[in-house]
Design goal:
With 366 residues, this protein is an alpha+beta fold. The chain is built from 9 helices and 22 strands. The structure holds adenosine-5'-triphosphate.
């Protein structure tokens, strides 16, 4: 199956630039999640790939074939939407068969494709069931079975879990992962839900305002954001950001902040004076007793998170950060002040343009 390439792809709706000069590849055999906040252009990009929206400029390739001008029916794309497209009052089997009939697929091949799709989706037992009797997960599975039975070159999913309740999402995710491994083709999956993207994607393409901020394997995207936006958007809550100044001292870049017990040397070139320190809440070390490089901080608020961890809002010199603690001791939970340390390996630096600065940090003892 070919990869999909987009080259300088732009879509404007009057003054709104929905997709802004994107160049990108969706690799073979991988699930690429398009992730980003509402309005960032995910659906528009997906619709252009499907041929449902014409680009303002740019090219879409399927392998080496330019299909920018081809109508949807000539693109051999399977699509699964937010709302399951299921015809009520007819069986699951017939639901999968109808589009194949429209395409004049001969009877034998039709049967073979339907049986194959039913098996892949684990729907064999429901084949004769009236589709009106199905729950939302099974209904969405029927939509997927239908998309697969076309034998598409690529499959596009547009927020397919929107109408599935929280408990059943785990079930759908599990099924999707198994299926994507078996299909081993280009799958593009649009979502604004970071947990969904983290669970399902081989790579996540993070979008903001029509542009691609970063594309990486989920863990790398989370741990190594290339822009402030990635640090902020991913995580619950997202990264902490602290403004700091970088000074030159004896030919070295030195960074200081009230969250450091002693300043840090930064080994990099051409750094701005104003930088932003980024650190994820779960990476901050918090203790009721003094840690080696810790500073004392006031505890402002405490709350419990959905995952059963504790979120402490702590303050040093009127700057607040959020720290996540998994198994706090009773002493820590009742403390009015705590010791906090930012482990150097978890500090990410950003410049004035909110872009990551790759730099090695070491303590510069006073
Ligand atoms: P959501 O998650 O809410 O669906 P999205 O990331 O998929 O958001 P798009 O739906 O692609 O974003 O929209 C991108 C931008 O383009 C938005 O500002 C939207 O208002 C605008 N837009 C999308 N479709 C149209 C249209 N048909 N006409 C005018 N503007 C549009």
């Amino acid at each position: 199956m070919p990869e999909i390439k987009i080259d300088n792809l732009t879509k404007r709706f009057k003054e709104v630039v929905a997709v802004d000069d994107l160049t990108f590849s969706f690799p073979e055999g991988q699930v690429t999640c398009l992730l980003g906040p509402s309005g960032c252009g995910k659906t528009t990009l997906l619709r252009m790939i499907a041929g449902l929206e014409a680009p303002t400029s740019g090219i879409i390739y399927f392998g080496d074939i330019d299909l920018t001008q081809l109508p949807p029916r000539k693109r051999n794309i399977g699509m699964v939407f937010q709302y399951p497209v299921v015809y009520r009052g007819i069986s699951v089997y017939k639901n999968i068969e109808l589009p194949l009939l429209k395409r004049n697929i001969p009877a034998n091949e039709r049967r073979q494709r339907i049986e194959e799709a039913l098996e892949l989706l684990n729907l064999q037992d429901q084949a004769d069931k009236d589709s009106s009797q199905l729950d939302n997960v099974s209904r969405q599975k029927v939509s997927v079975a239908r998309a697969i039975s076309y034998h598409p070159d690529i499959i596009l999913f547009d927020e397919p879990m929107t109408n599935i309740d929280a408990n059943s999402r785990v079930q759908f995710s599990h099924f999707f992962k198994e299926l994507s491994k078996k299909l081993n083709q280009v799958i593009v999956y649009v979502t604004h839900d970071q947990t969904e993207a983290m669970t399902l994607a081989d790579q996540i393409a993070l979008m903001e305002d029509g542009r691609m901020v970063q594309c990486n394997e989920p863990r790398a995207l989370y741990n190594e954001p290339e822009e402030v936006f990635g640090g902020w958007f991913l995580g619950n809550p997202g990264m902490n950001f602290i403004a700091a100044r970088c000074e030159q001292s004896a030919g070295k870049n030195v960074l200081d902040s009230s969250f450091f017990q002693s300043p840090l040397f930064i080994a990099t070139h051409g750094l701005d004076r104003e930088v932003t320190i980024g650190i994820r809440p779960e990476h901050i070390s918090v203790s009721e007793t003094a840690l080696s490089n810790a500073v004392n901080a006031k505890v402002k608020r405490k709350s419990i998170t959905v995952g059963g961890q504790f979120l402490l809002v702590i303050e040093v010199d009127q700057v607040e950060v959020k720290a996540k603690v998994s198994h706090p001791s009773n002493e820590l939970m009742s403390a009015k002040s705590v010791w906090v340390e930012f482990p150097l390996e978890h500090i990410v630096l950003f410049d004035q343009h909110q872009k990551r600065v790759h730099a090695e940090l070491t303590y510069a003892r006073k």
